[in-house]
Design a protein that fits this description.
The protein has one domain: Alpha/Beta hydrolase fold, catalytic domain (Rossmann fold). It is built from 5 helices and 3 strands; from the N terminus they run H-E-H-E-H-E-H-H. A 3-stranded parallel sheet has the order 1-2-3, with helices on both faces.
Length: 131
C-alpha cells in the first residue's frame, strides 16, 4: 500500500503549524506490526483539527477502523469531523465523481466549511492589512 494515502492525516502531527488537515480515504490503521506511521497511533500528537472523508465500501479501510481512528482523535482531544459515506468506494471523490455526485457535493461543502473555520488570519492581520 502507498503511504501517501495517509499522508494528509499525518501532517497534523508533524509540527508544521497547520491550521487543519483534510484526508480523503486514507488508511488509518497499522498495515502490520512494523508500521509506525498509522494515523490511529499518531493521533495523540496531532496539533490541529482533522476532517476525514471516507466511503463505507472502501476495500482498504473498514468502517470499524474508521471508527477506531475517530475514537483515537477524540481520546486525544483532537477536534475532528469524520464522515463515512454509505456505499461509497475508495476514490469516490475523483475516479467515480459522476456516480457519486451527491456525496462529492457534500464532501466539497464540508471541505470548504472546514477550511473557512480553520483559516482565520493571524492575530493583528486586519490591523496591518486593512479590512
Amino acid at each position: 500500500m502507498n503511504p501517501v494515502r495517509r499522508n494528509s492525516f499525518n501532517q497534523a502531527g508533524r509540527g508544521r503549524g497547520l491550521a487543519g488537515a483534510i484526508g480523503f480515504h486514507g488508511v488509518p490503521q497499522r498495515r502490520d506490526q512494523s508500521d509506525g506511521n498509522a494515523p490511529t497511533d499518531l493521533a495523540p500528537g496531532y496539533a490541529c483539527p482533522v476532517l476525514g472523508l471516507f466511503g463505507s465500501a472502501d476495500r482498504a479501510t473498514t468502517v470499524e477502523q474508521i471508527d477506531e481512528f475517530r475514537r483515537a482523535l477524540e481520546g486525544a482531544g483532537v477536534p475532528n469531523e469524520i464522515v463515512v459515506y454509505d456505499g461509497a468506494p475508495h476514490s469516490f471523490f475523483d475516479r467515480s465523481y459522476e456516480e457519486w455526485r451527491e456525496v462529492c457535493d457534500d464532501a466539497w461543502r464540508r471541505v470548504l466549511r472546514f477550511v473557512r473555520s480553520t483559516s482565520a488570519p493571524p492575530s493583528g492581520w486586519y490591523a496591518a492589512h486593512g479590512s
